[in-house]
Amino acid sequence: MVYHGEKVVIAKNNLPIVDLVIHQPTGKRKLGLLEGMVDIPDDLMEENDDINAMFYGNGK
User: Fold this and answer.
1) CA 14, CA 23: separation in Å to the nearest integer?
2) pTM of the prediction?
3) In terms of Cα–Cα distance, which of 12, 35, 8, 11 is closest to 22?
4) What's the whole-number mean pLDDT along residues 2-7?
């Protein structure tokens, strides 16, 4: 019902507790907040033998 624009009220003991309404964004999201603050290693996508052994066992 909310998806179609209606307001839904959730009540307990006949007292309204929560109003469900469709979300209205307050503004544009700012991307790149952590730019320059995170160091990604060059070997990030390379496989690690120790981790592979933990997942798949030592016998290949």
Assistant:
1) 25
2) 0.40
3) 8
4) 90
